[in-house]
Write a structure and sequence with these properties.
Oligomer: heterodimer
CATH topology of chain A: Yope Regulator, Chain: A
Helix content of chain A: 25-40%
Distance between the termini of chain A: 40 Å
Radius of gyration of chain B: 24 Å
CATH architecture of chain A: 2-Layer Sandwich
Largest interface: A-B, 21 and 13 residues
Distance between the termini of chain B: 61 Å
Strand content of chain B: under 5%
Shape of chain A: elongated
Largest sheet of chain B: none
Helix content of chain B: 55-70%
Order of helices and strands of chain A: HEEEEEHEEH
Strand content of chain A: 25-35%
Number of domains of chain A: 1
Strand order of the largest sheet of chain A: 1-2-3-4-5-7-6
Order of helices and strands of chain B: HHHH
Structural class of chain B: mainly alpha
Number of strands of chain A: 7
CATH class of chain A: Alpha Beta
Radius of gyration of chain A: 15 Å
Number of domains of chain B: 2
């Protein structure tokens, strides 16, 4: 699978009643910004390498965490990360993220399932962690 | 921390996603600021840039603040007034907001 074929596939597709708005972000490596209908506030960023399709949603920044809450938040994130379907929690620079990785041989339907689940998980997580954030 | 494998391609991919996120955040911020400066909604600002039809001005651009019971208590303390003296508190609020506006946009004062 490559980004061009994914742009074409997602533009026309609907998965579990959800549609996808795809934008190619210009740069050294092609990255797609995908907005899933019904989860517009949590756009998914997707990039494809030889070994994986990486899908990632930015949740919040370190500076947004309430003072004294960091350890508790980390504990909660680690515990939630295992049961959360198809997604895991992580950190890129100062940004906390939720992400999912698929094999590059995944079908379009599997990618769409990942995108919908990830965008919905991100909304749930933002609500869950609300009390830890300013 | 020891790395077991060569993950340099994956690091590069994560970096690319980060750059894409920063870029789209900058673009969104630029549109929000441009929209405010031109009294447009951000979505109308996007339509304007793309040469599509858009609503010229926000229908009723106005600034309102709803003050609750505890807000009056906090403001009374701020202005050294009684929380019951709501008219005086409102007057001080209006004065303070006016001063802020003049400082923020000096050419648009008075």
């Amino acid at each position: 699978m490559d980004t061009q074929s994914l742009i074409l596939a997602l533009g026309e597709a609907s998965h579990a009643g959800r549609t996808f708005n795809v934008m190619l972000v210009a740069g050294e490596e092609p990255v797609l910004q995908i907005v899933v209908s019904g989860a517009e506030e949590t756009p998914v960023y997707l990039t494809i390498t030889d070994t994986q399709i990486l899908c990632l949603v930015y949740l919040f920044e370190e500076r947004e965490i309430r003072s004294g809450q960091l350890a508790d938040l980390h504990e909660n994130m680690l515990r939630l990360s295992v049961p959360m379907p198809l997604s895991s929690l992580g950190k890129v620079d100062q940004h906390y993220v939720v992400y999912g990785a698929l094999t590059p041989t995944s079908s379009e339907a599997e990618v769409m399932q990942e995108l919908v689940t990830l965008a919905d998980n991100a909304i749930d997580l933002l609500q869950t962690f609300e009390d830890f954030l300013d | 921390m020891k790395k077991q494998s060569d993950w340099s391609r994956e690091y590069k991919a994560v970096r690319a996603v980060q750059m894409a996120f920063d870029l789209s955040s900058d673009i969104q911020r630029a549109f929000r600021v441009a929209a405010v400066m031109q009294d447009l909604n951000p979505s109308d600002m996007v339509r304007k840039v793309l040469g599509l039809s858009y609503r010229k001005k926000r229908a009723r651009p106005r600034l309102t603040v709803t003050l609750h019971e505890d807000d009056f208590v906090a403001l009374a303390e701020r202005y050294d007034l009684s929380p019951e003296d709501r008219a005086a508190i409102r007057e001080r609020v209006s004065k303070e907001l006016g001063t802020f506006a003049k400082t923020f946009l000096p050419d648009h004062g008075d």
